[in-house]
Amino acid sequence: MTAKDYPVTPDGRYFVVRGRLWRRSNPSLPEPRRAALVDELMAARRAVGIALRAGDQARLAEARAQVDHAKVALGERGPVWWQDGTPNFNRHLVVNTPYAGWLREQDKAP
Hints:
By secondary structure, the chain is mainly α. It has two domains: about 1-25 and about 90-110, no CATH class; about 30-75, no CATH class. Helices cover about 45% and strands about 5% of the residues. The chain contains three helices and two strands; from the N terminus they run ββααα. The two termini are about 20 Å apart. The mean pLDDT is about 95.
């Protein structure tokens, strides 16, 4: 399954994986900046794997910090990128959020 296969909330803020909301990247990021940040994120994730396999705790901590930095810059973590005061439901189960009814309707769709 690819990212575009997951349902996206009507406001475009989250996608749903196994009943959990995951915050999407800030749509106002210019495409070249977004692409560069995604490249940084993927490199950091590879570095996490390398550090795990090597058992190098110092490199692992550094790589995880790089992942976090890229995700914050993308808007997937840290302060929300929307301005209407709606709370952040990142990583919440959909059934415990205002999106519960929307997801039930998605499940009923043919």
